[in-house]
């Protein structure tokens, strides 16, 4: 049976075109029904046009749910959440809260998305602060989960313990890792390394039952597959995430320039086209669907503002997988058992 996912049609930098095309792509490739939130008079003609161009005559389950307002990237999150009561974000999250949809996806203002989700959905039992988690590619081919990547600039040891439990459940239920290895991001592997937050958190993580805690990990371990789940506060996690994105772009651009530098390299590039395409795909954020907001009573995915239709489709896929894996029930059970 198809699963219903709500998509904020007014979120991305180039909205609503990427959202509409992404919704069509998702409905063609996944067992989902997509509900676009936004002004119907704006969305209806664009959806009709896109269906004619991309749906190939198929009748696809893409619907529109009216929202008269939307939150821009340059809006101040707290003010916009309070003043825009009929925003595409709030309308979509209300549909999740009321059980009319299993998950919500937006490529809009991250701060506003988190604030609206916390206000509309509320936190899970045992969760003091929700956390943003993101998938990081590794050299092993099996991704790692990094959290928090920006939901909380300041965290205490108890917050990090809760992040660890949430990350463990997500890795086990959605990424299908039977006994995920969990590491605490620090500046050295030794127990005494790090700041007061990591030093105070370390013994608490060691005491967690049912968690495969492997100790401190370093920045280089983000990519080598040493840990399946890596926990940190939101300030450190956001810096790490933005560094990863910048490094990936540098590698892709530098490689492209090098391949064009000589005739010989151009011939080599033609012969290795598939390998280079695979390389670019492994570093492409659009393949991972966005950051997952863990700890709220519902499913909420926050994508990059520059998301294209493929990134939107993958965000819908991640939302559907999250909802079907019953992650939130697992988080509440694990936290209550501490």
From TrEMBL:
Cellular component (GO) terms are: cytoplasm
Matching HAMAP family: PlsX
Which keywords are on file for this protein? Cytoplasm, Lipid biosynthesis, Lipid metabolism, Phospholipid biosynthesis, Phospholipid metabolism, Transferase
Q: What coarse category fits the chief subcellular location reported for this protein?
A: cytoplasm
User: Per the record's keyword annotation, is Transferase included, yes or no?
Assistant: yes
What are its E.C. numbers?
2.3.1.274
Q: What is this protein called?
A: Phosphate acyltransferase
Q: Its biological function? A: Catalyzes the reversible formation of acyl-phosphate (acyl-PO(4)) from acyl-[acyl-carrier-protein] (acyl-ACP). This enzyme utilizes acyl-ACP as fatty acyl donor, but not acyl-CoA.
Q: Which GO terms describe its molecular function?
A: phosphate:acyl-[acyl carrier protein] acyltransferase activity
Key word Manganese present in the record? no
Q: Name one GO biological process term.
A: phospholipid biosynthetic process
Source organism's superkingdom? Bacteria
**Which Gene3D superfamilies does the protein's record reference?**
Isopropylmalate Dehydrogenase (3.40.718.10)
Family recorded in the similarity comment: Belongs to the PlsX family.
The record's InterPro entries line, in alphabetical order, gives: FA_synthesis, Phospholipid_synth_PlsX-like
Signal peptide interval: none
Pathway this chain belongs to: Lipid metabolism; phospholipid metabolism
Q: Which reaction does it catalyse?
A: a fatty acyl-[ACP] + phosphate = an acyl phosphate + holo-[ACP]
Task: Name its cellular compartments.
Answer: Cytoplasm
Q: Which PANTHER family match?
A: FATTY ACID/PHOSPHOLIPID SYNTHESIS PROTEIN PLSX, PHOSPHATE ACYLTRANSFERASE
Ranges that cross the membrane = none
Q: Give the top-level enzyme category.
A: transferase
Describe the protein's quaternary organization and the partners it interacts with.
Answer: Homodimer. Probably interacts with PlsY.
């Amino acid at each position: 049976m198809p699963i219903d996912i709500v998509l904020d049609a007014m979120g991305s930098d180039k909205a609503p075109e990427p959202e509409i095309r992404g919704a069509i792509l998702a409905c063609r490739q996944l067992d989902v029904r997509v509900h676009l939130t936004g002004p119907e008079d704006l969305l209806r003609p664009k959806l009709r046009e896109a269906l004619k161009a991309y749906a190939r005559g198929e009748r696809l389950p893409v619907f529109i749910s009216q929202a008269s307002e939307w939150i821009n990237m340059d809006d101040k999150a707290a003010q916009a959440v309070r003043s825009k009561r009929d925003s595409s974000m709030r309308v979509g999250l209300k549909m999740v809260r009321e059980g009319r949809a299993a998950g919500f996806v937006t490529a809009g203002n991250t701060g506003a998305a988190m604030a609206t989700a916390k206000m509309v959905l509320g936190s899970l039992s045992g969760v003091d602060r929700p956390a943003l988690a993101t998938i990081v590619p590794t050299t092993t081919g099996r991704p790692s989960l990094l959290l928090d990547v920006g939901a909380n600039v300041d965290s205490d040891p108890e917050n990090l313990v809760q992040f660890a439990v949430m990350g463990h459940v997500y890795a086990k239920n959605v990424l299908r890792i039977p006994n995920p290895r969990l590491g605490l991001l620090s500046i050295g592997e030794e127990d005494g390394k790090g700041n007061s937050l990591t030093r105070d958190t370390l013994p608490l993580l060691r005491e967690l039952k049912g968690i495969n805690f492997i100790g401190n990990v370093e920045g280089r371990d983000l990519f080598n597959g040493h840990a399946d789940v890596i926990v940190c506060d939101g300030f450190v996690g956001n810096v790490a995430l933005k560094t990863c994105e910048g490094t990936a772009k540098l590698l892709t651009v530098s490689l492209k320039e090098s391949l064009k530098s000589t005739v010989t390299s151009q011939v080599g590039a033609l012969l290795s086209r598939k390998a280079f395409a695979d390389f670019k795909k492994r570093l492409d954020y659009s393949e991972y669907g966005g950051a997952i907001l863990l700890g709220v009573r519902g499913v909420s995915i926050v994508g990059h503002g520059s998301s294209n239709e493929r990134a939107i489709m993958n965000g819908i896929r991640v939302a559907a997988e999250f909802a079907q894996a019953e992650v939130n029930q697992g988080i509440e059970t694990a936290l209550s058992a501490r």
